């Protein structure tokens, strides 16, 4: 059970609200954490005097959604090291077998370092492309969020075009990361070659017939090979870190884009994907006992997080549902929810059957909206029930 601090109380449907274009509540949650039955009487009286007259289909916002993209993950920094090879010290050919071996190893080391230099140039170029594509992506997303914040029409074609552009930019970031991943594979091959050169340089000291100059050159060569090995290891680690961090970032932004798409569709601004707020593993599963409890649709004695009343077509519940669920996930990242379709019992068995089907479809629509907002499907269990207290088809969201 969650504490009262995190509970969202449901405002009663009997409140009278002054007449306006957005009137009766299709969704009546309150994030104050206060018990509706036990609140301050004076505050209740003031609320009744300042709220609009009740008419079907309106939604009272739970709370301001905050700044556009609030809670979105900031792009992790890329590595900044410039992996310039140390170079190879030349040496004279002594004419001995060991001397010829030293010349051969120096040539191999020079080719290896040239390969590292090429990989370093490719890495710096990939990093620059990631930054460029990411900046363009965030600029476009910021423009979309700014337009949604001040209000716009559902499915605004300008925003749709900008969304497609942002999606293309994020795809380019993914391509840049794929190139960095391929680079890591080539650097790994260099690492194998450097290990071979290090072993060959050490083994050359044991070959007979060498002069002092041969061993002096081998000592210098071994030091340069060892420095090259360290450079390759650092290069490989930094590329791997860049790929890991940026891959996770792109996955997060794809979730945010899905939510942004839903916002453009409804003309509303939401914020960051719920999966990013949840910070819980999508691979997790809901306990079977919890799913069984949800399937029964038993709502007796349970306080709903949100109640949505479908008493008119196209009830705009998405913004308020997002606000309520995201607030809970900020406090309880591992929270799971029960989605209960509630049908009224009035009108006889045939009418009840029709309403039960309708309320179930409404619940499935709410579930789709939650998934579009980034909430993992395994965090929601859906059920259905009937209620004498319901006057119209409703969907209740409960915190499990």
3D structure, described in words:
The chain is an alpha/beta fold and 400 residues long. The protein has two domains: 4-65 and 274-399, no CATH class; 97-266, no CATH class. The chain contains eight helices and eight strands; from the N terminus they run βββαβαααααβαβαββ. It has helices spanning 41-50, 97-150, 157-204, 212-266, 274-278, 288-296, 318-331, 348-372, and strands spanning 9-10, 25-27, 29-30, 58-59, 306-309, 337-344, 380-387, 394-399. The protein has a four-stranded mixed beta sheet with strand order 5-8-6-7. Helix 8 links the parallel strand 6 and strand 7. Helix 2 runs antiparallel to helix 3 (157-204), helix 2 packs parallel to helix 4 (212-266) and helix 3 packs antiparallel against helix 4 (212-266). The longest helix is centred in the middle third of the chain and has 55 residues, at 212-266. It is elongated, with a radius of gyration of 32 Å. The termini are close together.
Main sheet: which strands, in order across?
Answer: 5-8-6-7
Rg from alpha-carbon coordinates: 32 Å
Could you tell me how far the N terminus lies from the C terminus, measured between alpha carbons in angstroms? 8 Å
Number of alpha- plus pi-helical segments: 8
The portion of residues assigned to helices is: 55-70%
Name the poorly predicted regions.
Answer: 1-73, 278-296
Count of separate structural domains: 2
Mean of all residue-level pLDDT scores? 74
Order of helices and strands: EEEHEHHHHHEHEHEE
**General shape:** elongated
- Helix/strand-derived category reads alpha/beta
What's the total number of strands?
Answer: 8
| Main beta sheet | 4 strands, mixed
Strand content: 5-15%
């Amino acid at each position: 059970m969650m504490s009262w601090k995190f509970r969202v109380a449901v405002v009663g449907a009997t409140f009278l609200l002054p007449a306006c274009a957005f009137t009766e509540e299709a969704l009546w949650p309150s994030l104050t954490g206060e018990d509706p039955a036990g609140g301050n009487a004076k505050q209740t009286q003031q609320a009744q005097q300042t709220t609009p007259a009740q008419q079907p289909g309106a939604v009272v916002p739970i709370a301001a959604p905050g700044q556009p993209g609030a809670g979105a993950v900031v792009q992790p920094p890329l590595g900044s090291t410039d992996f310039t090879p140390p170079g190879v010290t030349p040496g004279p050919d002594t004419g001995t077998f060991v001397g010829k071996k030293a010349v051969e190893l120096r040539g191999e080391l020079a080719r290896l370092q040239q390969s590292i230099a090429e990989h370093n140039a490719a890495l710096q170029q990939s990093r620059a492309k990631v930054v460029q594509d990411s900046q363009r992506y965030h600029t476009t997303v910021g423009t979309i969020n700014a337009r949604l914040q001040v209000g716009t029409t559902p499915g605004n074609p300008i925003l749709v075009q900008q969304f497609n552009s942002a999606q293309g930019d994020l795809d380019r970031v993914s391509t840049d990361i794929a190139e960095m991943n391929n680079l890591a594979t080539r650097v790994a091959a260099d690492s194998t070659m450097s290990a071979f050169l290090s072993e060959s340089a050490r083994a050359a000291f044991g070959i007979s017939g060498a002069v002092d100059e041969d061993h002096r050159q081998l000592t210098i060569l071994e030091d340069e090979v060892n420095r090259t090995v360290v450079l390759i290891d650092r290069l490989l680690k930094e590329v791997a870190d860049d790929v890991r961090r940026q891959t996770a970032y792109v996955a997060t932004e794809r979730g945010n884009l899905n939510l942004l798409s839903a916002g453009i569709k409804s003309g509303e601004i939401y914020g960051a994907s719920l999966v990013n707020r949840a910070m819980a593993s999508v691979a997790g599963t809901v306990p079977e006992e919890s799913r069984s409890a949800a399937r029964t649709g038993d709502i007796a004695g349970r306080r709903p997080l949100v109640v949505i009343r479908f008493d008119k077509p196209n009830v705009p519940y998405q913004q308020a549902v997002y606000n309520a669920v995201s607030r809970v996930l900020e406090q309880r990242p591992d929270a799971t929810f029960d989605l209960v379709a509630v049908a009224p019992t009035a009108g006889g068995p045939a009418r009840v059957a029709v309403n039960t089907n309708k309320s179930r479809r409404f619940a499935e629509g709410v579930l789709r909206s939650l998934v579009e907002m980034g909430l993992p499907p395994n965090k929601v269990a859906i059920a259905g029930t009937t209620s004498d207290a319901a006057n119209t088809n409703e969907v209740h969201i409960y915190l499990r």
